């Protein structure tokens, strides 16, 4: 497992950036993404002339045109055109950001990272990959924890990820970690009875929930013959109360996602996301009324403290003291 942060941040699905530019927030910095030739360009979303948002303009021949006086900037941020000017264009520039498109996902970096970004847990394998974007009113820690938290599924996703009965199974949970990551491995849970599980799975051998720096939450479902299904979510705090995510849904080629069932899976995946969004939004709204109150980290919240440590760049407690728990799930 690569422990070090690579400096890249997944910010958009490339296919969703068509003719119109897209404004995103990257750690509070407005950035405009636009299509330029075969690639996606990223510039500070501010025209250097009168500071209008470039994303309010349009894209012409791979260059972005400001909506105020029509100045154009290319993918490197250099000004190429000032309408009405008869002489040479001065060397004005908008700061660019490094971008890379990997398997349909646009990554942006504020610095100059070496190497390729990490996209998902099954890289290099023969897989089916589906992408979905989401936006939730929440914090990065709350959202990541929600994705990885097994205990809420009985309530928030009753019938979808879990059965309608309150029956539980005794499950072993091994929590471990290292620099920049923490994971919980669940074993002993042979089958879940929710609709999604029924459609997609046979016997389950283990489930892993993992968090990686800077904001990657991933779930892996392992069957007797290997990985059955996995999700990797790239999360970022796009604004004070908003977490944007790019979700990768991964299944082995020839496996269940490859099957007609995947048509049914996507809408159900969306419903589950909506159910989570509802509880996260409720928590976020309520937090505003009790700004000093910190949430309880309960005995089943195995990953919370480690996630909190990782997002601040600290060593997660799970790295120094791996633990095993037995719970009813
Ligand atoms: S403000 Fe952008 S061209 Fe004038
Ligand atoms: Fe959930």
Structure, explained:
By secondary structure, the protein is of the alpha+beta class. The chain folds into 2 domains: 9-109, Rieske [2Fe-2S] iron-sulphur domain (Rieske Iron-sulfur Protein); 127-286 and 298-328, Naphthalene 1,2-dioxygenase Alpha Subunit, Chain A, domain 1, CATH 3.90.380. It is 18% helix and 37% strand. The chain contains 6 helices and 18 strands. The protein has helices spanning 140-148, 153-156, 195-200, 261-287, 304-311, 317-320; strands spanning 9-13, 22-26, 29-36, 39-44, 58-60, 63-65, 72-73, 79-81, 96-102, 105-109, 127-137, 170-178, 181-187, 204-212, 216-223, 226-239, 242-252, 323-328. The strands form 3 sheets. The chain has an 8-stranded antiparallel beta sheet. The chain has a 6-stranded antiparallel beta sheet with strand order 1-10-9-4-3-2, with no helix packed on it. A 4-stranded antiparallel beta sheet has the order 5-6-7-8, with no helix packed on it. Strand 2 (22-26) and strand 3 (29-36) form a beta hairpin. Helix 1 (140-148) packs across helix 5 (304-311). It is elongated, with a radius of gyration of 22 Å. The chain starts with 8 loop residues before the first strand and ends with a strand. Bound molecules: FE2/S2 (inorganic) cluster (FES) and fe (ii) ion. FE2/S2 (inorganic) cluster binds at residues 47, 49-50, 52, 66, 68-69, 71. Keywords: 2Fe-2S, Iron, Iron-sulfur, Metal-binding, Oxidoreductase. This is (2Fe-2S)-binding protein.
């Amino acid at each position: 497992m690569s422990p070090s942060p690579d400096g890249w941040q997944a910010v958009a699905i490339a296919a969703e950036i068509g003719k119109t530019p897209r404004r995103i927030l990257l750690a509070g910095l407005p950035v405009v993404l636009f299509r330029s030739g075969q690639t996606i360009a990223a510039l500070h979303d501010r025209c250097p002339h009168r500071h209008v948002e470039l994303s309010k303009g349009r894209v012409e021949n791979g260059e972005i045109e400001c909506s105020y006086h029509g100045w154009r900037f290319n993918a490197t941020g250099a000004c190429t055109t000032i309408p009405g000017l008869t002489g040479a264009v001065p060397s004005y520039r908008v700061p660019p950001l490094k971008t890379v498109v990997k398997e349909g996902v646009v990554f942006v970096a504020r610095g100059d990272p070496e190497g390729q970004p990490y996209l998902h847990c099954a890289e290099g394998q023969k897989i089916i990959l589906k992408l979905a974007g989401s936006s939730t009113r929440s914090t990065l820690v709350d959202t990541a924890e929600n994705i990885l938290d097994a205990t809420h599924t009985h309530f928030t996703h009753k019938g979808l990820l879990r059965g309608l009965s309150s029956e539980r199974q005794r499950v072993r949970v091994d929590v471990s970690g290292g620099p920049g990551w923490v994971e919980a491995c669940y074993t002993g849970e042979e089958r879940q009875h929710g609709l999604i599980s029924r459609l997609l799975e046979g016997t389950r051998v283990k489930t892993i929930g993992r968090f990686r720096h800077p904001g990657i939450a991933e779930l892996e479902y392992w069957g007797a013959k290997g990985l059955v299904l996995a999700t990797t979510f790239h999360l970022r705090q796009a604004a004070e109360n908003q977490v944007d995510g790019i979700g990768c849904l991964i299944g082995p080629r020839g496996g269940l996602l490859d099957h007609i069932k995947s048509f049914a899976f996507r809408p159900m995946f969306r419903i589950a996301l909506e159910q989570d969004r509802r509880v996260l939004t409720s928590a976020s709204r309520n937090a505003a009324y009790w700004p000093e109150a910190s949430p309880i980290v309960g005995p089943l919240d195995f990953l919370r403290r480690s996630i909190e440590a990782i997002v601040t760049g600290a060593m997660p407690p799970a790295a120094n003291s791996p633990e095993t728990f037995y719970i009813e799930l």
